[in-house]
Specification:
By secondary structure, the chain is mainly alpha-helical. It is built from 43 helices and 5 strands.
């Protein structure tokens, strides 16, 4: 017994004392910091386990914001335990919190000296992590720290949270969120009840999966209701959702635990700025800097949040203040680089990105940006008085001028509508690869489905070539994004997300009835159900939607609110609201001021939306069989097939369908399923009246499952060409993403010489996919047939860039047209046609004609064809 007790004491204490320490540690982990402090102080009076208790005491005091006391606790213990790395780390943290960065650096240097000279002493997990953190700050390669230090710490004690947290902290610092999540999931398997690991996972998932982030935050706060990091991240989320009242409640919870926490003051400054309260903002910032007057993180965090709210100029100014405190503070320098690039201040932005990349070769964002700059250097630039358009060279030659013309048309119409002019050109970058768009837009190659983003005077967008597997109408997208340029300039970027997106979607529909989100059966069901978000909380609908469909619906609902405002109160009121937002007025206040009180506005809008939903095909029974679910697979923000899934019948057993069909003969889903079944059985004549009825009762149906498509197929199979043409014509006037329908109409129109219809549908096709030969072939034929040589020449030139199946024929037609126009280029194209097909009779005849027309120009090259 005596030997066993001696062995236990040699390990560091008695079983009872060890249990007492674990109890105190449990109090800390669950947020009972005062209880933890009391236990630690009592244990230290009894001279128990000086290092562990002193570190725990210092950590608990820091959690409470008692920074000087934490420093005293650590330094007092160091007097007796001078070789303790953990005590020096605690002292370093307290020195930073009290605004003594030089002394903190000296403490870190002493940690490195101790470890280097006596490394065999420090083989436990916590000491290894302390050394790893200090070594990283001193320039150790991150991979070396992960592989040699943190992995060794995990092996030394798999149940210690520090190695998992430190590894994830490093990955998050480098913006490698996936790697951080892997480290934390590894830790979670060992420590499922650790709130710090739950918070780390929330941070790792925040950029990609807000719902998962919220789930981990909820778990962390269940484990520790006073968990400051989790409360702050939740406050951050609510600021994004524009729920400032809830954010301030969370910040009050933080301050009840730690009234000195600098992040709480920084967030309060952000909220005050967004609410146009400069005096409150100044006081909040002063409070955040109270314990460390030159803390660069305070202004970095303020600037980061302002930039996330599209206040890039203010965000950049904050980052400059942070860098004035600490010129080498890389997070601020990296964020400033991105802010400047989004402001169009490219020279300084790229220079700063270079500096960050050189200082930290492991920073994913900086590396991505530097690589992207090399990509952009190869892009072609097209300009006019109002736009600078950058595109992949081949795409620029194919549809760059068309894109520039569309932007100019949008500028003319929307500037007139919103009474706004620009003093500087708008920069538009269309990316050939989706990952490049994502890096330019978000700093990372991952993209959650965005097609385009507007920062104010800068638009970034995917080109059609960036998403070959998912078509979209790029013209509609560019119109949408340019509308953001208008509204962001009008409001000085001080507008909630919902009204910004709502106006852009609304203006899409005004420009072209086939563009923008429109009512469909699924949206109808959501409006009449419980999916409408109150207007006052509509920005939050974009943050953590239940599904991709709900995110898509947020765009539609926002546009419906804008439509309601315009129809009920007039465009002038909308313009007044936007101007007041630019003065910093709260959206709910200005809406109430210029319309009706918010409670009435929300009630009136709900009635408006429900009326629109009820008016959709009023003669149709829309009820679905109980429990049936419509399979949906929407894309954001404007999907290639925005309503096809909404038109699919519910999936229920055949017997239930038969019973339902007898009870509900006018039911939309019954008729749709009946038509699909008849078509699948090739009973075309029987399917025709059912489909005609569906089109009659719901004429606005679009998408791949639209009855229009099935009806056109039925007419085609029955040889009813005129009827097929009429159905396709009606359908293509409503659907802006139906290239197969446009192609069929071009084919039918060419057979009858209806060149106007050929050109119309070729242009529609190009708005979806300008990177395939088909529409250019039809445009070329239409140009020739209608004696529009310039249009035909342009189309043939485009065809040559797309590897046509018969290049000799394209070269010949181009040569013929150019010869008619008197262009010297004709001869070169003709010779290239003959090089492809030396026996091409028509080309040889044209060559003879050219020689007769100008006999003095026969070249040596031509003699081989004589």
């Amino acid at each position: 017994m005596t030997l066993m007790l001696g062995f236990i004491l040699w390990l560091g204490g008695s079983p009872m004392l060890a249990a007492d320490f674990e109890e105190a540690r449990g109090a800390f982990d669950s947020g009972r910091y005062d209880e933890c402090i009391a236990q630690a102080e009592q244990a230290l009076k009894a001279r128990e386990d000086l290092e562990n208790w002193s570190v725990l005491l210092s950590d608990a005091l820091i959690a409470k914001g008692r920074y000087p006391a934490a420093l005293t606790a650590a330094t007092n213990a160091l007097a007796e335990e001078p070789r303790s790395l953990r005590l020096r780390w605690s002292a370093r943290q307290a020195l930073l919190a009290t605004g003594q960065p030089v002394a903190a650096d000296e403490m870190a240097a002493e940690i490195q000296r101790l470890f280097s000279s006596q490394y065999w002493r420090y083989r436990n997990a916590r000491d290894l992590v302390v050394f790893g953190r200090v070594a990283l700050a001193g320039g150790m390669e991150p991979k070396l720290a992960l592989d040699k230090v943190y992995d060794a710490a995990k092996k030394a004690d798999p149940k210690c949270p520090d190695p998992y947290l430190a590894s994830a902290e490093l990955a998050l610092e480098k913006h490698d969120f996936g790697l951080a999540a892997r480290f934390l999931q590894e830790g979670l398997r060992q420590l499922p009840a650790n709130p710090d690991i739950q918070l780390g996972l929330a941070k790792a998932y925040a950029p990609s999966d807000p719902r998962l982030m919220l789930a981990h935050l909820a778990t962390a706060l269940e484990l520790n209701s006073n968990h400051i990091g989790s409360l702050l991240l939740l406050a951050d989320y609510n600021i994004d959702a524009e729920d400032y009242r809830e954010a301030e409640k969370l910040l009050s919870q933080v301050e009840a635990v730690n009234p000195e926490h600098p992040d709480a003051g920084a967030y309060r400054a952000v909220i005050a700025h967004l609410q146009n309260q400069p005096d409150v903002e100044s006081k909040a910032r002063e409070q955040a800097l109270e314990s460390w007057a030159a803390n660069p993180r305070v202004d970095y965090l303020i600037g980061l949040k302002l930039s996330q709210k599209y206040r890039f100029a203010e965000g950049a100014a904050s980052q400059r203040r942070a860098l004035a405190f600490a010129p080498d503070f890389l997070p601020a320098k990296s964020q400033l680089a991105q802010d400047l690039l989004r402001l169009g201040e490219e020279s300084e932005g790229w220079h700063l990105a270079d500096e960050v990349q050189r200082a930290d070769g492991y920073d994913v964002t900086a590396n991505n940006l530097v690589t992207l700059r090399d990509v952009l250097a190869k892009y072609q630039t097209l300009t006019n008085d109002h736009f600078v358009l950058r595109m992949y060279p081949r795409e620029a030659s194919l549809f760059g001028r068309r894109a520039l013309n569309l932007l100019e048309e949008a500028r003319t119409r929307l500037c007139q509508t919103y009474h706004l002019e620009f003093s500087r050109p708008v920069l538009v970058e269309m990316f050939h690869e989706e990952k490049d768009f994502a890096v330019r837009t978000f700093g990372m190659p991952e993209n959650d489905g965005f097609l385009g983003v507007c920062f104010g005077h800068v638009i970034t967008a995917n080109s059609p070539g960036a998403r070959p597997g998912g078509q979209f109408n790029w013209e509609s997208m560019l119109w949408h994004e340019f509308c953001h340029v208008i509204t962001l300039q009008l409001t000085k970027n001080k507008m909630p997300r919902w009204i910004s997106e709502g106006i852009s979607v609304y203006e899409e529909r005004q420009a072209n009835p086939a563009w923008g989100e429109r009512l469909n059966p699924r949206y109808r069901e959501m409006i009449l159900g419980k999916d409408l978000t109150p207007v006052s909380k509509l920005s939050g609908a974009f943050l953590a939607p239940k599904s991709a469909l709900h995110l898509q619906f947020a765009y539609y609902e926002s546009s419906l609110v804008v439509q309601f405002l315009v129809e009920r109160f007039g465009r002038d009121k909308l313009l007044t609201i936007l101007r007041e937002l630019g003065q910093g007025t709260d959206i709910n206040e200005t809406l109430a001021k210029h319309t009706v009180p918010m409670t009435q506005l929300e009630s009136d809008f709900e009635a408006f939306a429900r009326q629109i939903a009820n008016d959709m095909a009023p003669g149709v029974d829309w009820e679905k069989p109980t429990g049936a679910q419509i399979a949906v697979a929407p894309r954001f923000p404007r999907p290639a097939d925005r309503s096809s899934s909404s038109n699919a019948p519910p999936e229920i057993p055949d017997g239930a369908w038969e019973l339902w069909a007898k009870l509900r003969p006018t039911n939309y889903w019954v008729m749709l399923r009946q038509a699909e079944r008849l078509a699948s059985e090739k009973k075309w004549a029987d399917a025709r009246p059912v489909l005609q009825k569906l089109v009659q009762v719901y004429p606005d149906s679009t998408g791949s499952s639209s009855p229009y498509r099935s009806l056109a197929l039925v007419h085609r199979e029955l040889g009813e060409t005129n009827a097929e043409r009429q159905v396709l014509t009606a359908f293509t006037e409503k659907d802006d993403q139906a290239p197969d329908a446009y192609a069929r109409l071009m084919e039918l129109a060419m057979e009858t010489g209806d060149w106007h219809t050929v050109i119309t549908n070729a242009q529609r096709y190009l708005a979806v996919n300008p990177l395939v030969p088909l529409p250019y072939r039809f445009l070329a034929r239409a140009g020739e047939a209608s004696n529009d040589a310039p249009a035909a020449i342009e189309a043939y030139r485009a065809l040559l860039q797309l590897d046509p199946a018969n290049p000799a024929d394209v070269q010949f037609h181009l040569a013929k047209l150019l010869h008619q126009e008197g262009s010297p280029e004709a001869r070169r194209h003709l010779l290239e046609a003959l090089e492809e097909a030396p026996r091409f009779r028509e080309a040889l005849l044209l060559l003879r004609q050219m020689r007769q027309d100008d006999p003095g120009t026969t070249s040596h090259t031509e003699t081989s064809y004589q």
